[in-house]
């Protein structure tokens, strides 16, 4: 049986290590550093979301605060920005921040009474960002 908080902690720790690696690789690499910095920030957002969720059994309020989902959506939006930069294009900032803004608006209005509704919204936004990332690579990736 998988202990979910431990899995979140391990994922968060690995994402944090990836962020450090991306930052270290991006120093002094010119144009390539932009891509690595986007992915560094992406991994920091994902690490933050995971580590907050890992602490949920000890601080249930923190895990349900909306911050983990906000960081997750910001991370996936920034991942799309990183993929676009890698492919030589730019994902529109308005769409990159739209998912987290929708989440903030819905969460601040108390729209999510249960975890199921939260999961649906987060899933839809993540699917959008990952589809946009894939589409960017297919259409602009030049055989990557």
TrEMBL record:
Transmembrane segments: 6-24, 36-55, 61-80, 92-113, 119-138
Keyword annotations from UniProtKB, A to Z: Membrane, Transmembrane, Transmembrane helix
The name this protein goes by in its record: Uncharacterized protein
Organism annotation: Aureimonas glaciei
């Amino acid at each position: 049986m998988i202990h979910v908080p431990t899995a979140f902690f391990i994922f968060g720790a690995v994402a944090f290590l990836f962020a450090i690696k991306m930052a270290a690789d991006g120093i002094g690499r010119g144009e390539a550093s932009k891509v690595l910095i986007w992915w560094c920030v992406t991994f920091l957002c994902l690490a933050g979301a995971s580590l907050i969720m890992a602490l949920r059994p000890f601080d249930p309020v923190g895990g349900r605060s909306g911050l983990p989902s906000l960081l997750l959506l910001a991370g996936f939006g920034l991942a799309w920005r990183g993929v676009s930069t890698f492919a030589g294009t730019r994902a529109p900032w308005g769409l990159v921040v739209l998912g987290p803004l929708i989440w903030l608006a819905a969460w601040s209005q108390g729209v999510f009474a249960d975890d199921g509704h939260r999961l649906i919204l987060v899933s839809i936004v993540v699917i959008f960002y990952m589809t946009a990332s894939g589409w960017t690579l297919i259409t602009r990736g030049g055989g990557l």
